[in-house]
Design a protein that fits this description.
Largest sheet: 2 strands, antiparallel
Shape: extended
Helix content: 40-55%
Distance between the termini: 114 Å
Structural class: alpha+beta
Number of helices: 8
Strand order of the largest sheet: 1-2
Length: about 160
């Protein structure tokens, strides 16, 4: 009468709860890591450089997130208290829409940089990232411009060598 097998499925309810097992709470400390390159193999290795207290970091964020403090900041005239920031208007129609397009653009810039003459590449430390940063900031254009006198002097020196 009423034999049960060990493999019979169990249906849990409010009255028949499954066994509860506590989960580990973890540690309040987290390890700080950096990526390092192994000098022997050249492989990337994760290296532990220290520890930090996560609980203290969480507590640092407590006061600015209390609703009373947010309302007080807003009443005092802080426009950023409610998280409203002024908009940015820009034409981003030619921005990449996914990671593949972004990677392709990076490769295009690297290929264009590789095709530049050696003397121009040396002005930017043979680094396409520095090249693009300086070109976009305007400093790179000044490096590329030659003074007319020096260009003429270089031509004269070339003619004299021949």
């Amino acid at each position: 009468m009423g034999k049960t097998t060990l493999n019979a499925p169990r249906f849990y309810s409010r009255l028949n709860l499954p066994e509860r097992k506590p989960s580990p709470a973890g540690s309040e400390w987290a390890e700080k890591c950096v990526i390092d390159v192994d000098s022997e193999t050249g492989a990337k290795v994760l290296k532990i450089v220290g520890r930090e207290n996560i609980y203290e970091k969480i507590q640092e964020c407590l006061e600015p997130t209390k609703i009373e403090n947010i309302i007080r900041r807003f009443e005092e005239g802080d426009p950023t208290a409610l998280g409203h920031e002024s908009g940015i208007y820009a034409d981003i129609s030619d921005m990449p829409t996914n990671i593949i397009e972004a990677q392709k653009r990076i490769q295009d810039v690297q290929a264009k940089f590789a095709s530049l003459p050696i003397d121009i590449k040396e002005k930017f430390g043979n680094d396409p990232t520095v090249f693009m940063a300086e070109i976009l900031s305007g400093e790179g254009l000044q490096k590329l411009k030659k003074e007319p006198e020096t260009a003429v002097q270089e031509e004269i020196k070339d003619e004299q060598k021949q």
